[in-house]
Amino acid sequence: MKRLKTFFTRDLLFTSSFLIAIISCYFGTFSLNSIDFKVIFCLFGLMFFVKNIEKLGILNYFAEKMIDFSATSRSLIRNIVLLSFFSSMILTNDVAILTLMPIYLTIIKKFPAMENKIAGAVLLIVAANLGSSFFPFGNPQNLFLFSYFSLSTATFFEWSLILLLFSILVLLISFLFIKKRTIPKQTNLLPIINKKKMFFLSLIGLFILLGVFNVIPYFVVIPIASVLLIVYNKEMIRQVDYKLLWTFVFFFIAVGNFSQVEMISTFIKEQFTTTTHTFFGSILVSQVISNVPAAILIAPFTDQVQAIFLGGKYRRFGYDHCFVS
After folding, report:
1. I need a surface site. Which of 134, 208, 261, 304 has the fewest CB within 10 A?
2. Buried-state track 15-36, b at ≥16 Cβ within 10 A, e below 16
3. Which residues, in sequence order, are bridge partners of residue 72?
4. Closest C-alpha among 99, 128, 179, 147 to residue 316
5. What is the model's pTM?
6. Closest alpha carbon to 226 in 235, 237, 241, 215
7. Which stretches within the chain are classed as H helix?
């Protein structure tokens, strides 16, 4: 019982989605059609792939190189923040943050007199969340919206490119407020990257992307990629966040069931009829249940997909900024 209690209390979002899914079965009839299996499969494949990339230590390598390239505290913070921004496009925002933040904290311990340490941490997290918005696979919300609304690649990048350029501009302006102080040169032992493994994983990553972008059916790509990754390192499959996958499934079930109730369906649709209502509504809902379940909840009741996309990004910026502060 103690293990069971720990299992359900450790991740409240998972537990809440599970309970909501059960309750929703009272209002509607469960159907497998409610579950977007492409999102589930692709998300699993990407998480499995990213865990292997993370294990290889690529971000650690580039972070250490940041110190070599940095002559001042401003350039040091700028370099590691930009690394967070661009690496999150491929490795997702969570991986970039969880990998680079400990490295950043280790770096600043080497320079006790360095100023703007908290500002650097905040910018690192904000950059990861903004950078991950550029590709459909950068974060789960993007992957869901890209799949659910069958967005064309051109349309998605048209939206994300605007956000990308704006984000870079904001970050570059932010760096100007970081005090410019000379930092002493350090002798760092760079981690060794296995080039053969890097090449192999790069090919696997490109193969998975073919499934995400519908070049090859995902139900062909993901199983093949998963088998290859298991052969490469079977231990990493245990590191996949299965609770996140089940959280998606539970929300899909809940939304599918509740949408069968005309009164509930009509009420929700009325709240998201315009771009403005959907944008601010998605921000509001995201504050309560996070941006991913908010997107899953709102998507079936509106066609204002760009507003959902931007609203979720606003939530991530605000939430993470407050968390670090």
Report:
1. 261
2. bbbbebbeebeeebeeeeebbb
3. 182
4. 128
5. 0.70
6. 237
7. 2-9, 12-27, 37-56, 58-69, 73-91, 93-109, 117-131, 140-148, 153-175, 195-212, 218-232, 242-258, 262-271, 275-289, 291-298, 305-324
Place of tokens 């760009």: 306
CA atoms within 13 A on the CB side of 247: 23
Backbone angles phi, psi at 182, to 5 degrees: -70, 135
Give residue-wise pLDDT tens across range 164-179.
999 999 999 999 988 8
Distances (CA, A) of 187 to 117, 180, 184, 213: 21, 21, 10, 43
* Dihedral sign computed on CA atoms, order 222, 224, 225, 230: positive
CA dist 307 to 139, 165, 176, 310, 321, Å?
A: 17, 18, 31, 5, 21
Give the pLDDT mean for 205-217.
Answer: 87
Tokens of 322: 């407050």
pLDDT tens for 290-311 read 677 778 888 888 888 888 888 8
Residue 292: half-sphere exposure toward Cβ, Cα within 13 Å = 22
Six-digit token pair at 283?
């921000």
Radius of gyration of the chain (CA): 21
| Euclidean distance between CA atoms 325 and 160, whole angstroms | 27
